[in-house]
Amino acid sequence: MLYALRVAPLVLIPTGTYHPCVSDQPRPSAAERLLDTAARLFYARGVSNVGINEIIARAGVARMTLYHHFPSKEALVKAVLERRLAERDEWLAQAHGMADEPLGRMLAVFDLFIEWAETPDFRGSPLVTATFELGGQLNAARPYAQAHAKNVEEYFRRQAQEAGLRDPAGLAVQLTMLLEGASVYVVVTGDTKAAELAKSAAASLIAGAADD
User: CA 7, CA 5: separation in Å to the nearest integer?
Assistant: First the structure.
């Protein structure tokens, strides 16, 4: 007798957002699954449009498990923001390893941005997006977005100083504004070529700071 072969459906993991470990690695813990699920859903649809019930269902955990790790949705949002900030720091570390000299390291940040902007689910910086969405004076996301901006600015400043460029602090602010502004522009217009233009503009700023 012939038996039909049942094939498990292919699960596609979105690019550009935080994604869990691949199938040949140990299954993540319940807390990690909750964070992974919440991070993807918050990035795709916004914090206010995602409920606890959906997060629980998609993460495959019990309600009591969620509240054991995260007493409230606000606590889960904070944990996701902390995760996102750590991811952005890892992003800078990746750029640092892509070149052997400071000028190349600065432009490597824009190379990674180009790659990220071209992913189908790109919605800009998750920290900046959350800051706009949550709003208000007691904005939970703003301190994380500010910390990320400062980290990027400091990274550019250190590389510019090592390269002997003029006014490293001023150049760092310009490059950070260019990077964050280009991210918003890509989201608003859908024009991913803007990321390449941002790198070209960054190269011009760097070259101008190197002129005698």
Answer: 6
3-class secondary structure, 30: helix
**Residues 116, 180: contact at Cβ < 8 Å?**
no
- Tell me 168's DSSP state: H
Sequence-ordered alpha helix ranges (H) in 50-192: 52-59, 63-69, 73-96, 102-117, 126-134, 142-162, 168-189
Q: What angle do CA 124, 130, 133 make, to 5 degrees?
A: 110
CATH superfamily of 81-210: Tetracycline Repressor, domain 2 (1.10.357.10)
Which of the 8 DSSP states describes residue 206?
H
The CATH architecture that domain 29-71 belongs to is Orthogonal Bundle (1.10)
Q: Structural domain boundaries of the chain?
A: 29-71, 81-210
Q: Is the pTM of this model over 0.70?
A: yes
The model's pLDDT over 116-165, given as tens digits with 9 standing for 90+, comes to: 999 999 999 999 999 998 877 668 899 999 999 999 999 999 999 999 99
